[in-house]
Design a protein that fits this description.
Blueprint: H1 8-19, H2 24-31, H3 35-43, H4 67-77, H5 83-93, H6 101-117, E1 134-140, E2 148-149, E3 152-153, E4 157-163, E5 169-174, H7 180-194, E6 200-203, H8 217-220, H9 223-231, E7 235-238, H10 248-268, E8 272-273, H11 276-291, H12 295-302, E9 317-322, E10 328-331, E11 334-337, E12 346-351, E13 355-360, E14 363-369, E15 382-384, H13 391-396, H14 407-410, H15 414-426, H16 429-446, H17 449-462, H18 467-475, E16 485-486, H19 495-502, E17 527-528
Helix pairs in contact: 1-2, 2-3, 5-6, 10-11, 15-16, 15-17, 16-17, 16-18
Length: about 525
């Protein structure tokens, strides 16, 4: 066939067939080309155009009238113009003349022009990394799937650390934004796991590390980040703003890790986890599998990392807060309850990205989970209330629960909220409050939140719930007998009082003290029936 292209293997097949006596037709068929091509091969003319550049067109140029006069000048003035924009320009100026098929021709023409006459493009330069020299940090979002914790969407970031030479990496879940607290905790955990610190630490223009005032790196550092790098003897560096490829040694591994994590989740057949801890453990396993390929280089690099200091740099923010009469503190617009013993005290808070440590007079008191206001909240306010902190006081005055502003927040979960609705349906409000508060008290003191909820549902379904049954079930107290107990006592004599009144104590000389002993029995006669209080 005219214009047919053949390769050297086809020619060898043809020639070998001819050598063993095959006809030209048979040999050509074995080679996969025409008889005419076979003749040219034997004459040595099978590639008559080899080494020549075709300088003629095989069809009419549809852009001949507009390329040099209109389109090319537009590209020279604005090289960023796209072929689609130029085609739309032609459509508008010459209606009906340039069909959709012309667009492909225009795309090839523009691409050819940019390759020969366009502006120089940015060149990427492969970098050579030395062991123990550079470590990189960055934050990234995992958007390939929606992670849930116990069925609820879990909003989070991933902190990613990587050694440039070996490729060893560490990834940690971060709640909240790209704060210094998150950077400090993630980086220090990574350094501890890798066994040492590099000489350079590179990030992009994180607001957690830089003020981004347009100054030099050394002058633009935040005080906290500068102290962190000095603590680990690392020199901070960063890429230019908006130039993510300058941080390519970690930007590209972002995508590689997230693809691996997504595949592992698909294999797991679930994106839901029981806790943040179990989700982190799943990520750790994925990272361990990735680190296997860099094990040998990491062992080399680990020997050249700098020795870690004896103590960690503070990876928390210190805040002071007063405890109100409601047993609450407010941190970053979030209301938290604390143990009621702290009412009236001023506490010190160590604020981490995922929890708060509470201290009073340098003594640790309790740990609180940190929460963040939802994006839909216009006030950026939220509440984190724990019924365990206030249940002692609530038990003394259970009716306070009925109109409490925090009623729904004090109920530990959706199961208890449903139980509260059933209680209000079956009992008077005062009795419902007493039962609910007593249930919360037992759940808090005996750490039987789930057990109490399950037992309450069973009792409510059978309509047999009473306060006595609740207390007897969980306090190991036998139900009181319903039999009447009669105690027989004899009435004491009133003559003792008569004798007392006969004495005229006002006529006695001053300084004398009179002592009267009334013989009153200590026991009291009564008849009682023990029932439901």
């Amino acid at each position: 066939m005219p214009g047919q292209r053949i390769n050297s293997k086809q020619i060898q097949i043809y020639l070998k067939a001819r050598e063993i006596g095959r006809t030209q037709e048979t040999s050509s068929a074995k080679g996969g080309f025409s008889v005419r091509t076979g003749r040219r091969i034997e004459k040595g003319e099978h590639q008559p155009q080899k080494g020549k550049i075709r300088d003629w067109r095989t069809r009419e140029d549809p852009l001949e009238s507009v390329w040099e006069s209109e389109l090319k000048p537009l590209l020279v003035a604005q090289p960023k113009l796209r072929p689609m924009t130029l085609w739309e320009y032609l459509q508008e100026k010459y209606p009906g003349k340039y069909e959709k098929s012309v667009l492909r021709t225009l795309q090839r023409r523009v691409r050819q022009w940019k390759a020969t006459s366009g502006a120089p493009k940015e060149v990427m330069f492969a970098q050579e990394h030395k062991p123990g020299e550079l470590g990189l940090s960055d934050f990234t979002h995992f958007k390939q799937a929606t992670i849930t914790i116990k069925g609820k969407p879990f909003k989070h970031l991933l902190y990613h650390y990587r050694l440039a030479y070996s490729g060893w990496q560490y990834i940690q879940i971060i709640q909240g934004g790209e704060s210094f607290v998150a950077l400090a905790q993630g980086l220090q955990n990574a350094l501890a796991l890798s066994g040492g610190s590099p000489r350079l630490h590179r990030t992009d223009s994180l607001s957690a590390a830089y003020r981004n005032l347009g100054k030099k790196t050394a002058e633009d550092l935040t005080h906290n980040y500068e102290g962190l790098c000095q603590h680990y003897q690392m020199r901070p560096t960063r890429n230019n703003r908006g130039k993510s490829h300058e941080n390519g040694s970690i930007e590209s591994p972002h995508g590689h890790f997230k693809r691996r994590l997504h595949q592992a989740l698909l294999l797991r057949k679930s994106f839901d986890f029981d806790s943040v801890k179990s989700y982190q453990q799943f990520i750790d396993k994925t990272v361990q599998r990735l680190n296997i390929s860099s094990e040998s280089k990491w062992q080399q690099e680990k020997l050249l990392l700098q020795k870690l200091p004896a103590h960690k740099f503070p990876d928390y923010e210190v805040i002071s807060a007063g405890v109100t009469c409601y047993s609450t503190i407010t941190i970053r617009c979030i209301l938290y309850t604390v143990p009621s013993q702290l009412i009236g005290h001023r506490v010190t808070i160590h604020l981490y990205h995922d929890h708060l440590d509470v201290f009073v007079s340098h003594q640790f008191v309790t740990e609180l989970p940190r929460i963040y206001a939802s994006e839909e909240s216009s006030t950026r306010r939220a509440r984190c209330l724990d019924y365990r902190h206030v249940v002692d006081s609530l038990r003394v005055k259970p009716r306070a629960f009925l109109q409490c502003q925090w009623q729904q927040d004090l109920l530990p979960n959706e199961d208890y909220r449903q139980i509260w609705l059933l209680l209000k349906e079956q009992f008077l409000p005062e009795i419902a409050c007493r039962l609910m508060v007593e249930s919360l008290y037992i759940a808090a003191k005996q750490d039987k939140e789930a057990s109490v909820a399950g037992w309450l549902r069973g009792e409510l379904s059978q309509q047999t719930l009473t306060l006595i049954r609740l207390q007897s079930k969980f306090n190991n107290v036998s139900p009181p007998s319903q039999e009447k107990t009669v105690i027989q006592v004899s009435q004491h004599s009133l003559s003792n009082y008569d004798q007392l009144l006969k004495h005229d104590i006002f006529d006695k000389p001053s300084g004398l003290s009179l002592t009267f002993v009334a013989q009153i029995p200590a026991t009291v006669s009564y008849e009682s029936t023990v029932g439901i209080p």
